[in-house]
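ping. complex inputs:
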Amino acid sequence: MASTRDAEDHQLVARVVSTNDTDAFGELIRRHQSQVRNFLRRLTADVALADDLAQDSFMHAWSKLQTYSGRGSFIGWLMKVAYTTFLQSKRRSKRYGEILAEAGHVADLESRSYTLPTEDVSDLDKLLAVLTEEERAVMVMSYACGMSHREISDATNQPVGTIKSVIHRGKEKIRNDFGIKDYQHG
Amino acid sequence: MASKIINMADRLRDDVDERLVALFRAEPIADNGFSERITRRIRRRLWLRRLAIPLAAAIGGAIALNPLASMVTLLIRFVRSLPFDVVATTPGWIPSLPLIGLGGTLLVAVLLGLRMIDE
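pong. complex structure:
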C-alpha cells in the first residue's frame, strides 16, 4: 500500500471510507485546504469567516465522503461541498437577520453580501463586487481554481450550458465595468 | 477521455480569460495547523461516538436495573409457587439475583469488547 503522502486522492478516500483513517483524511485536507480556503475567501471577502466555513466544509466532507463516487476529481467534489456549506451559512444568516428584523432590530438583509474590504481594495475585489453571488462562485471556480465547466456544473448542480452563459455574462460585466481590454495586469 | 476533450474546450480561452486567470491567481495559503485542527476535531468526534453507545447502554441499564430486578424476583416467586409436578426440575436450578446481575454484566462487557475489537 502506498504511504499516505504518496497515495493518490482516490486511494486516500478509499482508506477513509473503509477504515475511518484520520491520517489519510488529514493528508487530503493538507493537499486541498489552500484551494478551498482561497475559494471561500473570494466568495465571502472575510478571511475569518472563510476559514470557519472551510473547517465546516471539511467536517461535512468527512461525514459525506462515502457519497463521493470517484467520478470526477476529488477537488471538484470538495468544492461542491464548500459551495453548499457557503450557501447554507448564507441562508442561516439571512434567516437570522429576518428574525432580528421581526424582533425590531436593524439587520443587514442584503443579498449581494460581498462587502469590499475597507483596506487594500484590490482590482480583484472591485471586480468581484460587480458580480452576483452565482457569477462570483462560478468565476472563482473557473479562473482561480482552474476547474473545468463540467466540474463547475457538478459543483453547482447547474447544466454545463448555464455555466458557460454565467461565465460569459460575468466576463461581459467585467469588460463593461472595467474596460478590461485595456487592463494591464501588474 | 471525454473529460479531457471537455477540458481542452475549456482551455480555449481568449485574451480576456488569460488576464482574468492572472488576476484571480492567489498565493497558496499555508496550512499552519489548519489540517491538524480539523483532524483533531474528527478524532474527538469519533471517540465521542464510540463512547456514546456504551454510555447510553450503561445509563439505560442503571435505569432499568430496579424494575428488571423486581420483574425477575416476581418471576422467581411465581415459579417457586408452582407445584413441583408442574415444573419438571427442582426450583434449585433458578439462579439467585446476584448471579443474574453478574451474568448480565459479563454479557454486556463481552458485547462491548467485541464491538471495540470490531472497530
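Chain A has a mean pLDDT of 82.
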